[in-house]
Amino acid sequence: QVQLVESGGGLVQAGGSLRLSCTDSGLAFDEYAMGWFRQAPGKEREGVSCIRASGGRTYQIDSVKGRFTISRDNAKNTLYLQMNSLKPEDTAMYYCASARSYYCLNSWPLGADFGYWGQGTQVTVSS
Q1: How do strand 92-99 and strand 68-73 relate by DSSP bridges?
Q2: By C-alpha distance, which of 115, 107, 103 is closest to 51?
Q3: Burial of 24 (0-12, 13-18, 19+ CB in 10 A)
């Protein structure tokens, strides 16, 4: 059974950086795309970034392009999100999720293709 555990969240000033990690206890980590999502209070969940199973192709939403980088280490069953130049509007609970497919589908930001989710890690950016 897949169990996803996020870590690395915290409180940071605007302009700062954080690196989120997500460890997958499942046996087939390298067979599925992985994604990062976030949800701010009072807002709907939004997809932040997606990476295919091999790690060779990544996708990000426009608001984080050039600031956030998704990566994975399949040997360690770990997914990362490097977040630089953080802004107060990045404040949210961040979740990692495992997709049901090898690739990031066109609909990846909606999250429907992701079957396993972590409990989340809070990121708070102060102005």
Answers
A1: unpaired
A2: 103
A3: buried
The tens digit of pLDDT for each residue in 24-36 reads 998 799 999 999 9
Give the CA dihedral 108, 20, 119, 126, nearest 10 degrees: -100
pLDDT tens digits along 41-64: 999 999 999 999 999 899 999 999
Pairing outcome for strands 121-126 and 10-13: parallel
Q: How far, CA to CA in Å, does 67 sit from each of 5, 54, 87?
A: 23, 22, 10
Task: Say how far apart CA 118 and CA 121 lie, in whole Å.
Answer: 9
pLDDT at 26: 80
Q: Quick one: which of 65, 111, 71, 107 has its CA closest to 90?
A: 65
pLDDT of 127 strictly over 90: yes
What does the pLDDT look like over 69-84, one tens digit per residue? Answer: 999 999 999 999 999 9
The rounded distance, in Å, linking the Cα atoms of 80 and 94 is 12
